[in-house]
Write a structure and sequence with these properties.
Blueprint (H helix, E strand, L loop, with lengths): L33 E5 L4 E4 L1 H14 E6 L17
Antiparallel strand pairs: 1-2, 1-3
The chain binds zinc ion (ZN).
Length: 84
């Protein structure tokens, strides 16, 4: 298996790119698995938890939704210690 490196010279990430571990949920800071491109031009990132929580509403206001929550499989996204 050869590792495919992304183009290192590119500073600006194309919006169609996959989410990486560097992408963080705007709500809680966990790794993001859902990117929502808003009709207004903005962009939001959500972890699997918040993607599920806000998913329906997000799809109403989104121009495009990039969903990678399937990557998680059965593994819990975040081990939250009781967020009251
Ligand atoms: Zn979150």
């Amino acid at each position: 298996m050869d590792k495919r490196e992304a183009t290192v010279t590119t500073a600006v990430a194309p919006s169609a790119a996959s989410l990486s571990a560097a992408d963080r949920c705007d709500r809680c800071g966990a790794q993001a698995y859902l990117r929502v491109e808003l009709q207004t031009g903005g962009e939001l990132l959500f972890c699997a938890h918040h993607a599920r929580e806000h998913g329906d509403k997000l799809r109403e206001i989104a121009a495009a939704v990039h969903d990678e929550t399937h990557k998680l499989g059965d593994t819990p996204a975040v081990a939250t210690n009781g967020d009251a």
